[in-house]
Amino acid sequence: MEKKTLLTGDRPTGPLHIGHYFGSLLNRVAMQDEFDSYIMVADVQALTDNFNQPERVRENVLEVAMDNIASGVDPKRSTLFIQSQIPQIAELTVFYSNLITVNTLKRNPTVKAEIAEKKELFGQDGESVTYGFLGYPVSQAADITIVRAHIVPVGDDQLPMIETTREIVERFHRMYKTEIFPLPQAKLSDSPRILGLDGNKMSKSLNNAVYLKDSPEETIEKIKTAKTDSGTTIEFNPKERPEISNLVLIYSLIHNRNPKDVASEIKHNTYSEFKLKLAGDLNRHLMPVRAKRAELEAKPHYVKEILDMGRVKVLEKAEETLKLVREAMKINY
Ligand code: TRP
């Protein structure tokens, strides 16, 4: 039986952190045998809110590729590629833009939240939002369907994008009376989302993340200074004690155990004892990932070669898809 196709991706806006690692990278690694897997470095999407700093996006393309490979995404089994190197994605985005209303895009809760966060770029009330940013879910639909993916592993913030993709696919089929695409399905990670070390969302801009590329010393320093509360015991109670519970969660993910069980065992540790143990165990857990990453950093040509092989493979599939699409749309002159 032929394998089903999987596609997912990351915006190259910074190196990947342990939130990405536990939340999505391990999941990709676990799925790469069962599916024909495509991992996209979404540089074009990253530019939709970094158009004024293209060097940031460029600098992080290889970082993101290396983080994936170091975490176990195996270039022999998964196809890694750069979004901008597949012009058919841009072409498909244009065709799809007829199949979704501006109002639907404006209601997308993830896009809405991002516009509200980015006042410097898009104005106090989003009055200066660009056509490109508002439309990135359309471009994401093209990312997913360019390889005719069945399954899209993502975090829950991406569910609205998958919903838009499904809507576009269904419209396309109805409008042009074909069945080119599978109806793609989101696959949520079972792993609960970890927070940053200050209790906010883990993110580069908040300076609260542990990166896969951090040194063991940086990791220890970051965890030592992680925010906690004034409690005297350790428990897993994310609602009332989010920061300490988040550290327990990270610890439990490292050990592949239930966070409540773990918390009850270390209940009487002091915060500083626990933090040292956590940092040590995290460093030990990430040792092979970091070793592999250091190896890759030493041979960027090898990483570029992998991305280039991915480009060649995806181009072929993308052109196949576009042939079907142009034919369905009667523009196959
Ligand atoms: N929007 C995703 C994110 O911010 C990245 C992404 C781009 C993606 N294209 C994709 C994810 C296609 C899944 C499928 O993380």
Q: What summary fits the major beta sheet? A: 3 strands, parallel
Order of the strands making up the biggest sheet: 1-2-3
N-to-C span? 35 Å
Helix fraction bin: 55-70%
Structural class: mainly alpha
Integer-rounded radius of gyration: 21 Å
* Count of individual helical segments: 15
Shape assignment: globular
Which ligands are bound? tryptophan
Strand content: 5-15%
* Topology as a string of helices (H) and strands (E): EHEHHEHHHHHHEHEHHHHH
State the total count of DSSP E strands.
5
The whole-number mean of residue pLDDT values reads: 97
Low-confidence stretches: none
Please describe the topology of this protein.
Blueprint: E1 5-10, H1 18-31, E2 36-41, H2 43-47, H3 54-70, E3 78-82, H4 87-96, H5 102-107, H6 109-117, H7 119-122, H8 131-134, H9 136-146, E4 151-154, H10 159-176, E5 185-188, H11 216-224, H12 242-255, H13 259-265, H14 271-297, H15 300-328
Parallel strand pairs: 1-2, 2-3, 4-5
